[in-house]
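Need SHSP domain-containing protein's 3D structure for a figure. Predict it.
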Amino acid sequence: MGNVLQHHPARTLSVQDVFDRLESGILGGPWHFGTHEIRIEERLGDDAYQVSAELPGIDPEKNLTIDVTGDVLTIRAEREERKETKENSEFHYGSFARAVRLPAGARGDRATAEYTDGILTVRIPLEGRKDETTKIAVTRGTRTG
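Structure prediction for SHSP domain-containing protein:
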């Protein structure tokens, strides 16, 4: 699963084009979900970490999977769309997967998710996260030998 390479049949892609497109997807570039570009937004607050994704046209109960394993949140979605006209029929299929490393103190076991008007919002509470500076004492050691 992952980034879907867009290719126009009348255009030949060079090897460099393919690598550029793969790199842009793997390293956080635009993700495509059928013909729709997926936008991901991450927010780190004082009490929660939030990830939002545009996933229009899916049934969240059938085509959306969200899980947390260790310190990684994974979101997977699939969408299929059929358009029928008198002249022809079109079928579009897209899949999306994104893994995000969670910040320290994230409680994946208490995560919540909501899907409203094509927007998925996952909220993960944070515990024990402090941005305070802690001084660490240094002790003097002795050499032997």
